[in-house]
Amino acid sequence: MKKIKFLAICAIAVLTATSAKAQFSTGADVVSSYVWRGFSQDRSIITIKGDTTSLLGTPNIQPYASFTAGKFTIGSWASSSFGGLVKEVDLYATFAPSSSFAITVTDYNWGFASKKGYFDYSKTTDHIFEATVAYTGSEKFPISASINTMFAGADKKASNGKQAYSTYIEVGYLVTPLVKVFAGGLIGESGAYVTTSGGITNAGIKVSKSVSITDKFSLPVYGIVGANPYKKDVFFVAGITL
């Protein structure tokens, strides 16, 4: 695989929008467990004195930082378990021609999975590159949808070692401004998600609210109850946005 000069592409995208007002943003979520598209991510396999142990369900802190200029945004999102064994650092670039439509390219890296350096973009890289087309809906039409396809990197089929082009599709409906139902699934075999066929992997409901701490300060919290029918699994995630 040719090296994808992700940061250079991001920089060029931002420079084309230098006439627009620039804006920086940062924040973080603290979640009871890390579930992504129906799959638990806070799993780490360690070996101590010959015994292999699987660590599950630890809380994660998930910070982000972004820079927006006009219709272009570049940023980074990360997740780390409180125990420090599960780590992920992702980069992304987004072009949003309107408030409800966006195209994003993401560079995923679960750095805890191997001893390779983060900047290893060789044929055996740990990085996975994904293209996303997303519609976020509107007040009159509160239906969202996204198509997410991994087009390069470590997303290889277990059956033949070829690029899997794993594709995840999700639709959602905003019942109220604070309640959303969603359902999503995969098309075909996936290397990144470790599946042998397609199926529904992520269905549930997200409920948000704001907890008043003082008269002038409130803390956004949310809960997600969901299921992964493909894995015959259920999950409940509680989160706080800082």
Structural account:
4% of the residues lie in helices and 57% in strands. The chain has one helix at residues 6-15; strands at 22-31, 35-36, 39-40, 43-48, 51-56, 60-69, 72-81, 87-98, 101-108, 128-135, 143-153, 167-176, 179-187, 199-212, 218-228, 233-241. A twelve-stranded antiparallel beta barrel has the order 1-6-7-8-9-10-11-12-13-14-15-16. Strands 2-3 form a two-stranded antiparallel ribbon. The longest helix is centred in the N-terminal third of the chain and has 10 residues, at 6-15.
Number of domains: 1
| Helix-residue proportion | under 10%
Number of H- or I-type helical stretches? 1
How would you name the CATH homologous superfamily? monomeric porin ompg
Task: State the main characteristics.
242 residues, mainly beta, Porin, twelve-stranded antiparallel barrel, two-stranded antiparallel sheet, 1 helix, 4% helix, globular
Short description:
The chain has 242 residues and is mainly β. Helices cover 4% and strands 57% of the residues. The protein has one domain (6-241): monomeric porin ompg (Porin), CATH 2.40.160.40.
Helices and strands, with pairings:
Elements: H1 6-15, E1 22-31, E2 35-36, E3 39-40, E4 43-48, E5 51-56, E6 60-69, E7 72-81, E8 87-98, E9 101-108, E10 128-135, E11 143-153, E12 167-176, E13 179-187, E14 199-212, E15 218-228, E16 233-241
Antiparallel strand pairs: 1-6, 1-16, 2-3, 4-5, 6-7, 7-8, 8-9, 9-10, 10-11, 11-12, 12-13, 13-14, 14-15, 15-16
